[in-house]
Design a protein that fits this description.
By secondary structure, this protein is an alpha/beta fold. Helix content is about 25%, strand content about 20%. It contains 14 helices and 21 strands. It is globular and about 80 Å long.
Length: about 525
């Protein structure tokens, strides 16, 4: 510190007396601020007080009905409120509690070094961990008879849903995002407001604010509007459909500060999920993910922590899936072309449906789309679809797909529904960590809803001895396809486009590759190198 002060004083000698005084005053204020700097933490308690707990006072009738439908236990300790004695004791030492999580039995707060030391001595405190404060961003009578649809919908064969009038009717969808400013003025969303389909809204960044639609707080408050459009957008005049769940209802939450690019806080996200569950919401779409860029670099998440069980947000997400009957759709992330490359939390959660992004016609991974880590014992992402500008828009497109299947078979368990979506995708069962099982297909999904053991005769397995093969494809095979070269059954080393001449493919084994997947038209061929 003395070295820096000497350097500052050395250069200040070049300026006049008044300038030096003003500069030093500013420096002293800055140093004082830094000495009292606070970090945001999760404070987790050891237990709860369950005496006198009444179920009906903690969760709504809608939540109770959802649990009964899905045969989920009604009584859960995670629903019990936080211990008020612990909250009072924390407040008594001057700590301002910011957010509370019943599920995690935790609160968030900014702590200085003295407060941190005091809390560590409290008998009821289980752990204190820093919070990642940076985020990367992602009854109606509407007759849906579109003349054209968004590319992602065309990829997923949405017309099979339209043929059965599946439009998400009766499904409540929660959307957690940056903001929904001017959604009421968006032509493709006007049916939501005519039909009063926004059932509730909350701002977890600024709880004082009651309107996150007609009023803006930051320049980035419009992202959620675009997300809604990808879930349920429909232009009745032009008969153009942008999202599949045209007739769904919505609960919307703002948890991200749009003034700063890709910024949010995971404690607010967790609080928003708990709020939606308390209202009986079953399907939640979120385009937020947490990985790096902590205020203190020492607190950054590490690549190996994207394992579905380390971060608080992934723990909350898995609890939502396992215990609360929530189907969670999460964008995989947009780090595929960066040094980070892999998905972030909560897309790493085993139970969440993580969605990547493909190119428009070739259905291979678009460059920015995050890939699944090699160290995970399960496949991520699970599915993908087209989005030219972020997985934050491919995830809501798939959310609409999920809503239509829920409408078709409301009683289906979420784990079974997730399997249906995976098995309906165009690469199944030969998924990979680039695009998962590929793009979900509505026609297959509808068949699988009724017969989960149904198989589709579009896959070929070819075991190859040696380093190359000439392979003849079936009649009417297109002349252009995509190849995924893999080091094992799922981990891609390289993807490439391939031309097929007169139904004949010449394929050479790549270095360190054990499996190669060819996707051409509706045909999928898995080459296993011996």
């Amino acid at each position: 510190m003395n070295i820096w002060l000497n350097l500052i004083l050395h250069y200040l000698n070049k300026y006049n007396y008044m300038f030096r005084i003003a500069f030093l005053l500013n420096i002293s204020v800055l140093l004082a601020h830094l000495s009292n700097a606070q970090t945001k933490y999760w404070i987790t308690f050891k237990d709860k007080d369950t005496s006198g707990y009444e179920l009906s006072q903690s969760i709504s009738q809608e939540t109770i009905q959802k649990r009964k439908l899905l045969e989920i236990p009604l009584y859960q300790v995670s629903d019990v409120p936080l211990n008020h004695k612990y909250l009072r004791e924390i407040s008594s030492i001057g700590i301002n509690i910011l957010h509370k999580s019943k599920w995690l039995n935790s609160v968030s707060a900014y702590l200085n070094s003295e407060q941190l030391a005091q809390l560590k001595d409290k008998f009821f405190v289980q752990e204190i961990v820093p919070i990642n404060s940076k985020v990367r961003i992602t009854s109606c009578n509407e007759e849906v008879n579109p003349t054209s649809v968004h590319t992602a919908l065309a990829q997923m064969q949405s017309h099979f849903f339209s043929d059965q009038n599946l439009t998400g009717k009766g499904i409540n969808i929660g959307v957690i995002d940056a903001g929904f400013f001017r959604a009421h003025l968006e032509k493709n969303l006007e049916h939501l407001f005519k039909e009063f389909r926004i059932l509730a809204q909350r701002d977890f960044q600024n709880p004082e604010r009651k309107d996150i639609i007609t009023k803006s707080e930051t320049n980035g408050d419009g992202h959620g509007k675009s997300v809604l459009e990808k879930i349920c957008g429909y232009d009745a005049d032009l008969r153009v459909q942008y999202g599949m769940a045209v007739n769904a209802n919505f609960y919307i939450a703002r948890t991200e500060n749009g003034n700063k690019e890709n910024r949010g806080e995971e404690d607010k996200w967790i609080e928003a999920v708990e709020w939606m569950d308390s209202l009986g919401v079953r399907l939640i779409s979120t385009s937020l993910g947490y990985s790096t860029k902590m205020d203190d670099p020492l607190d950054n998440y590490k690549l190996e922590e994207m394992n579905g069980s380390t971060t608080k947000i992934s723990k909350a997400a898995q609890l939502a899936v396992d215990n609360k009957g929530i189907f969670l759709v999460v964008s995989a992330g947009n780090e595929g072309a960066s040094a980070w490359k892999i998905i972030s939390s909560p897309a790493d959660t085993r139970g969440a449906l993580s969605v990547g992004a493909t190119r428009e016609y070739t259905l291979d991974r678009i460059g920015y789309s995050s890939i699944g880590p090699e160290f995970l014992p399960y496949l991520k992402p699970e599915v993908s679809c087209f989005s030219p500008n972020g997985t934050s828009f491919s995830a809501p497109a798939v959310t609409g797909f999920v809503a239509c299947l829920m409408q078709k078979k409301p009683s289906i368990k979420n784990t079974d529904l997730k399997k249906v979506i995976e098995q309906s995708a165009h690469l199944y069962p030969y998924g990979n960590n680039f695009i998962g099982y590929g793009v979900p297909q509505a026609d297959r999904a509808l068949v699988l809803l009724e017969n989960p053991t149904q198989t589709f005769k579009n896959t070929i397995i070819k075991k190859v001895r040696g380093k190359k093969i000439k392979f003849k494809l079936p009649e009417n095979t297109p002349n252009h396809g995509i190849i995924f070269h893999k080091k094992n059954e799922t981990i891609v080393v390289k993807q490439q486009e391939v031309n097929i001449i007169k139904r004949k493919l010449k394929l050479r084994r790549q270095t360190n590759v054990t499996h190669t997947t060819l996707s051409v038209g509706s045909i999928v061929v898995e080459f296993i190198w011996k």
